[in-house]
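Posting this for the archive.
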Amino acid sequence: MKFSKEEKDILTQKIQWYFREELDRDIGSFDAQFLLDFFSEEIGPYFYNRALYDAAALLTDRMDSLTDALFEIEKVTQYKR
């Protein structure tokens, strides 16, 4: 995953905040960026793939609803599928 400099700065600050507030430890900006890079490279793809699966499932549900809606307005004819 690639983040802009601004995003990396925000995420680094969030990691530092988490360590300070939840773990009662201070970590420097370099360590927080290193941890962010690790999670981005090693764990990020799992989140990315899960998001793709969720989006695909949502689109499938929406397409099924659309297909159902189209069949609801189908006109009766002698032709049978």
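The mean pLDDT is 94. The helical segments are 5-22, 29-72.
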